Amino acid sequence: MRHEEGSEENESSFxxxxxxxxxxxxxxxxxxxxxxxxxxLDAKKAASQYQKEADKCSMGMETCELAREKAExxxxxxRRLSYMWELRARQRGWKEGTxxxxxx
Length: 104
What we know:
The protein is an all-alpha fold. It has one domain (2-92). It is 90% helix and 0% strand. The chain contains 2 helices and no strands. The protein has helices spanning 2-91, 100-103. The radius of gyration is 43 Å and the shape is rod-shaped. The model has no long low-confidence stretch (mean pLDDT 91).
């Protein structure tokens, strides 16, 4: 019967070792999951920050584009007015290169 006792003892010891190994693997898996969750959260935060920066950039580009369009419209209006005044001056005898003191 001693042989059976030793066999049962070995089996019990093996079962305890397997149970301990499973506990260690479970603990490692939980730690790995925690790390993965943390990395995912960090990645989401970084993505959110990059998106905010991209949105700011887009808004800045839109503002810049609106300012460029306004400046272009103002320039077109100034060119139109300059052309109108030059046309009036030419109709009254002004020639390019003539200064006011030459006309008087």
